[in-house]
């Protein structure tokens, strides 16, 4: 029997064919959401994470993918805003994505974790350092590939007390989960060490004029300032402090470690101190990974590129380890296995925090580079 296709029937047939093709294509891929700030004032940190994820995916796919499937990154923007964390998390769930590298900022991460854990989505943050991400939550699906502020804060405070030995310390923060949390940790440890904290105060992130704060720093005669927050505000504090003749030295956490701070602070950025994850790009064992970054004109030495790379590796190894794209089994696998990464062999405790992580102190320079601090004996 000859079948005559009408235009409408042909259109329906084409649509069905496209759906079948799309379904077949989806079956050949495993999607991983990359959640972080891709708009707003700290987009650089989202880009650091994306560089790490993209590089890891390219290398894994070049070797045949995972269980014969290609990995695909799906970028999702939360603008580093806590209110956008749940929006992105719900989008991940609705799009049936099982794995997330991110979120980047602690506030957005904290706001999203309940959704991921309740819906069985594996989330690994390469950058959210607030203890509140995991403390007391009894999560099964939430992990990170970076240390916590209650590790980073004491490391900074110990350095300040033993290396800088200031007389009068001022501590500022941006009133947000990440910045205030680490500033509080530094204050607590400094006071244990007998270092006088003469000022502990929040500033408004996004302001353009901190001259009143600088005046107050001068009035309390602070010779050292620790700032908990991100680079846009730190850059302004440095520049405006120099303009007003403030002689104190500044230090911050990994959130200030961004080359864009140089354009904001100008020459005043020279000598800024900061804590960062160890520079794993200097490890000879990571030479091939570093080359893969360079080949794509990416920088492996930033704060979050290799922690993000390692997060993606952990997801891929988990899927391989259980032999299935099954986030429940992958989460259980990660809780019970150590993973080889550029950070070394990493493993997690019951609440998804790394069992070991090291922060180091660096000196930032006006050309945008950093050098490991040379400790005085």
Automatic annotation (TrEMBL):
GO terms for biological process: amino acid transport. Belongs to the leucine-binding protein family. Residues 1-26 form the signal peptide. Residues 29-368 form the Leucine-binding protein domain. InterPro entries: Leu-bd (IPR028081), Leu_Ile_Val-bd (IPR000709), Peripla_BP_I (IPR028082). This is Leucine ABC transporter subunit substrate-binding protein LivK. Keywords: Amino-acid transport, Signal, Transport. The keyword Zinc-finger does not apply. Gene3D superfamilies: 3.40.50.2300. CDD domains: PBP1_ABC_LIVBP-like (cd06342).
